[in-house]
Amino acid sequence: MERILTLRKKVDEIDEKILYFLKERVEACKSMGAIKREHGIPIRDYQREEEVYTNVMRKASELGLNPQEVKAVYQKIIVMCAHAQESDTKT
Description:
Blueprint: H1 2-39, H2 46-62, H3 67-87
C-alpha cells in the first residue's frame, strides 16, 4: 500500500506540472489572440492545428503512447486555448 501512496504522490506532482504548463500555454495563446485581433487574423488556424496534431502524434508514438489518445487530449487543449484567445479582451 505504501508504494501506491508514493506513486499517487508522484502522479499528483506530475498533474501540478501539467497544470502549470497548461496555464503557460493559455497565456501564450492569449498574447497570440491579441496580435491576431490587432491584425484581423482569424483565431482558429486549422492548418496549424493539424500540424500540432501530426507532431504530437508522432512524438507520442516515439514515447510509446497511444497517438489517437494523445490527439484527443490535444484537441481539448486547442479548443481551450482558442476560447482563451476569443474571450481575452486585454491587448
